[in-house]
Design a protein that fits this description.
By secondary structure, the protein is an alpha+beta fold. Helices cover 30% and strands 24% of the residues. Strands 1-10-2-8-9 form a five-stranded mixed β-sheet. Helix 1 packs across helix 4.
């Protein structure tokens, strides 16, 4: 285990536009070495990939990117929707973001964040000759907790989990479920130097080279919990309403059957 690690932002990157070569821009802005992990804000990847769309109505863009509504709440300024988007990510507003986008447009997440991370890692390794890991980050809230943190929505060349199952803790007790999501932890660490308004969309994490590996490692999609093990598949109010409707429908059906039976007596 490393005694520590460091995180630093990459300064000097220009405003990103459609078609820009992110690997070349990043490699030209900083020195990279074996074992470095780059945390890249997904917004600049979206811009480079042309995921900027005109949207007079942001809500319509959110609807278009939504696969499943998990929960929604009205507030004074409108409505907050927690949804599953096309990438399988559950979060607010399907990842549609109007910040740092030209007026009248919104940014959509990359179509395949893991593939985007893999392309970027491949390019950086070719340009620098160094084993670089890449994590694409985005900001999400968490159930039961206020505030937001950055998480990994795409990853390449990085072990997204530190699977300790089957080992023992410091006192020799077996570890049966311990599997830290290091990709999310690294994404959160990167956010501490990137920020939302600093104009620094890329961070370098050094000292965690033990997590850097081949480009065919499972990506961030493997972090998403399968639906059969998802304990938060619906919001509380939505689950209550669905249960109420199901109970009402069942009662109505039973009442209809009793009425039909009475007609034949």
């Amino acid at each position: 285990m490393a005694a520590g690690f460091s995180v630093e932002g990459v300064d000097g990157l220009p405003e990103i536009s459609t078609g820009d070569d992110l690997a070349a821009l990043i490699a030209g802005a900083t020195e990279l070495a074996d074992g470095d992990i780059l945390v890249v804000t997904s917004k600049i990847v979206s811009k480079a990939e042309g995921r900027v769309v005109e949207a007079a109505d942001r809500e319509a863009a959110i609807t278009a990117e939504t696969v499943r509504v998990v929960a929604s709440r009205e507030f004074d300024g409108g409505i907050t929707r927690i949804v599953e988007n096309r990438q399988g990510i559950v979060g607010a507003a399907a990842g549609v973001d109007a910040s740092n986008a030209p007026d009248g447009t919104v940014l959509l997440l990359p179509v395949d964040p893991d593939a985007s991370a893999r392309d970027l890692a491949t390019g950086l390794r070719a340009l620098t000759g160094a084993r670089i890991g890449v994590i694409l980050s985005d900001t999400l809230g968490r159930p039961w907790r206020e505030g937001q943190t950055d998480i990994a929505i795409g990853a390449a060349g990085v072990h997204v989990f530190d699977d300790l199952r089957g080992g023992t803790d410091a006192s020799g007790k077996p570890l049966s479920v311990t599997m830290p999501c290091v990709a999310d932890e690294i994404a959160g660490a990167g956010e501490l130097v990137k920020g939302k308004s600093s104009g620094v969309p890329v961070a370098i994490v050094r000292g965690l080279d033990r997590y850097v590996g081949d480009l065919d490692l499972p990506g961030a999609r493997s972090i998403q919990r399968p639906s059969e093990r998802d304990l938060f598949r619906q919001g509380a109010d939505e689950a209550y309403d669905e249960g109420y409707r199901a109970g009402f429908d069942e009662a109505q059906a039973e009442g209809s059957l009793r009425s039909s039976g009475d007609d034949f007596e």
